[in-house]
Input
Amino acid sequence: MLSITGTEEATPRLIALQIALGLCLIGWMVKGAMFWSLLFQAGFETPIAVDALPALFTSPLAAVMAYMAPLIVMPIALVAGPRGALAAAVVGSVSSLVLVLHVSGYNDATFVTSLWVFLWIGWLAASSDTEAQRWGARLAQGTLSMIFLGGFLGKLTPEYLSGAVLHDVYFLQKQALFYPALRAAVTPDTLQQIALVFSWAAVITEGALATSVLWPSRLALRIGAVVCTGMVLVSTVYLTSVMAALVGLCVAGLWLLPRAPAEAHEPSIGSPAYAPSPNNAKS
Amino acid sequence: MPAPAPQTTALGTLVAIAAASLIGLHSTDVGLDALLRRFHLKPASTAEWVALQPLPGMYNFANRVTVLLEPVPWSRLDSEPDSFRMYHVNHYPPREITFANKRQLWRHNGCPWYLYAESAVRGRVLRTRFTVTKEEAGVRLWSSEPVPEC
Output
């Protein structure tokens, strides 16, 4: 099987790179739907200075460059093989870091998830096929686990465990999806009870995924992909910008695992018949 | 099994440090205070901001805000919750000012405006009255006192 460039054998590592980069690109494009006006209009028309942050972190131009650079590099990297992916990972990591520090992106989880996924992509691009297949899924699990740990620990507070925060943020304020209809259909007390269940479900799910580094890789990454997709479905389509990178991480990690016998056409690492070949060498 | 390559060790270590930092920060009062300051754009230093921002913190803490045209003491917000309804936001309360549409509002509707923000986690509470003032080129968000005249 050849890659889309037609020049390089499509090893699991190369396909995993394309999956992860492709999902990151989708996330950044979805982000643009809301972010564009902030960057190109409000950012320049009404720049905001914050007394506690240095000027670099409030420069409108810095935000534009940080957001645009990966959007330009990622499509090229998708067809440029591991070296292109490595370049995209470096650009993406730096850009994500700039944006998590910048007043235009500090509050946006898109750039936090992207930062960690770009680091993983950079690792994958810099590794040999053998190294990628040996450690790729584990590192993806570890990254996923750490990201959900951050969400989980911050919800261990009475206001979340009583359902009060999500009752307000989702069940009272949200104007999209099924929330307005739900508000109209049930009593305020029932709505609070639903919010309580919803809160605990969120806390338990995040807590479980925070431990997923200890699970079998295939299970952890499959559940991770499903949960990240589900979070978009119960929140807003714009959450795709945050979750697409994580879904990409999970799917790419899965792709690096040895195929089950029924799925495999060739021996893979971990199976008795696997033996490194010249095609498995680092590109 | 062969030893991991250097880049594998590096990424694994980085992720482990991030996870350990999260546990450490959320387990101590000093750490929680730093995380609360981060949510209010009031880091103790630029280094603290740079160190904390890459750590995931989606939907952390109970964050409530309200926007007012006149400054009032926090005690009035506490005693008159119906007059000054503080609504929850998922994270980073100053986003109510820094978002694109909100910035335009600040610019075109006079100033100063005041954002009252409260973040709470397990009994630790940080309250900040942000002041938004106009500048020649845009607006400025003040989290410190005193704030210059508009």
